[in-house]
Amino acid sequence: MMKKEMVAMILAGGQGSRLKLLTKNNAKPAVPFGGKYRIIDFPLSNCSNSGIDTVGVLIQYKPRILNNYLGIGRIWDLDRNFGGISLLPPFMQENGGFWYKGTANSIYQNIDFIDDYDPEYVLILSGDHIYKMDYNKMLSYHKERNADATIAVIDVSLEEASRFGIMNVKVDNEIYEFEEKPEHPKSTLASMGIYIFNWKELKKALIEDEKNENSTNDFGKDIIPKLLGKGKKLVAYPFKGYWKDVGTIESLWEANMDLLNPKNKFDIFDNDWKIYSKSLNKPSQVIGENAVIKNSLITEGCVINGTVENSVLFSGVLVEKGAVVKDSVVMVNSVISKGATVERCILGKNVLVKENKKVNGKSKVILIEEDRKVEDDIIK
Questions:
Q1: Sign (positive/negative) of CA torsion 249, 252, 256, 258?
Q2: DSSP 8-state symbol, 36
Q3: Which of 119, 120, 337, 340 has the greatest CB tally within 10 Å of its CB?
Q4: Which ranges of the chain would DSSP assign to H, the alpha helix?
Q5: Which H, E and C letters describe 229-272, residue by residue?
Q6: Contact between 45 and 274 (Cβ < 8 Å)
Q7: Mean pLDDT over all residues of the chain?
């Protein structure tokens, strides 16, 4: 069997409870984003553009929609005879284990899968972040530094730092301390949840971690501190581009709005680094004679006869005459009826806002669950 230099493992099994009704029937990585994508399109497209052709996707919570969407990986050029995409749910084992107990345990349960490719390195990714990254550049950095593990980091504000795992580093970016969501952070270098490990070192650490009954089986809380404690060389890889953890309704809305900001560093129109997704094969959009559209993303199959401003509309959305959509994200096949107003909202798929009704997130972004009929004004 051919050897692979690096295998990617995407952690895609999270429930995403902070996204509330968007993940009621759906895994967080399969949540729609940006008019035509799902969140998992971004790490998968990064793998494809980086030439990584062997990807394991670790699934657990509500996997049906994600399974159907990923298929055999053809969209991302991952339908390979050797390698390609593999969906990896937890399974019953001799020791009685079943569900993934944590991020580290999910990789531990798939040691055999990784060993099949005998890689030198393993790339661990989260399935719920929006960003573009060349993982080959990170791998080159890992090799140059002769590291046992490399952790991608992004500089955040001091106010935000307590939300993240924080890397405290020497002047050469070698990590000497890791703090998980510290109350009083010593630095602002936040872990992006993107790791490259030497596979032999990681495999040993995973086996040891599994034997520890007191472990939470987590990379940030257990594996990384244990490697540091053993004197292994861990280095931080500074990332300067756009990166967003879309784990809340507000951050998901902000990331969609970022696509409309001309000053934003994140360019989905970059032909040199395409973001691949599965098309719904809808007909062309229709822009009526009464339509007014400003600074918006309008996807195929939309029919616009009203006003759309600074908004992201997914396939098949209907905006009737006199309706106004502003600063909002409207998902597949939703209808904003005559005279209705939608502002600072995320509408799930198949939502119907009835005539002359108002949905306005004045103080906070409003989420309307899929398949709902809005028959009364909602103003918050």
A1: positive
A2: T
A3: 340
A4: 41-49, 64-70, 103-108, 111-115, 135-144, 199-211, 224-229, 249-258
A5: HCCCCEEEEECCCCEEECCCHHHHHHHHHHCCCCCCCCCCCCCC
A6: yes
A7: 92
What's the residue count for the chain? 380
Per cent of the chain over pLDDT 90 is: 75
Over residues 120-134, the pLDDT tens digits come to 999 999 988 999 999
Q: How many CB atoms lie within 10 A of CB 377?
A: 12
Question: Which residue type, as a one-letter code, is found at position 11?
Answer: L
Tokens of 36: 């035509």
Verdict on whether the full-model pTM lies above 0.90: yes
Distance (Å) of CA 46 to CA 55, 324, 356: 11, 36, 43
pLDDT of residue 1: 60
pLDDT at 97: 60
Q: Residue 289's pLDDT is what? A: 94
Rounded CA-CA distance 76/126 in Å is 17
| CA–CA gap between residue 61 and residue 12 (Å, rounded) | 8
Backbone φ, ψ for residue 86 (5° rounding): -135, 130
